[in-house]
Amino acid sequence: MTVTFGTAFQHTGSSVLVSAAGDLDAAARTPLAHALDRVPAGTAVVVFDMRGVPFMDSAGLLLFLDLHRRAECRGLKVVVVGWQDQPRQVMEVVAELPDGRTYPRERTPFSGFRRMVQDRAERQGQLARQTAAATEPYVRPLRHGSR
């Protein structure tokens, strides 16, 4: 059963608490795309409370990573708290972390996780390009009718 994703905002001084609730999947695209629109000018810190998010898939993770990147581009410090077990497990699988190690912990900088995933993706892309370049002389295009 899919639980519709939504957010609630609390403003306190130069900080904003964003309480997320519901499944973080592709259907969360619109609420996440507009989440930063509700953060007023002069805000220094945005805290995302994820206790209300019982489920996250890879699409939801990518959407959240993009939201985090956009917030940092606006000069906002981002803190993420309250990950539930299933979303944490998705991040462990994506990050290929060893069993028994929980990441992110209750108050782990999400920016470090985001950068690690980006770096790993870039390294995989470089490796794929290097492999393709190294094997290219040995790969002949098949011509119609040739064996």
Automatic annotation (TrEMBL):
Record-linked Gene3D superfamilies: STAS domain (3.30.750.24)
Segments crossing the lipid bilayer: none
Record region (Disordered): 124-147
InterPro entries linked to this entry: STAS_dom, STAS_dom_sf
SUPFAM superfamilies on file: SpoIIaa-like (SSF52091)
STAS domain boundaries: 16-94
Name of this protein: Anti-anti-sigma factor
The species this protein was found in: Streptomyces fulvorobeus
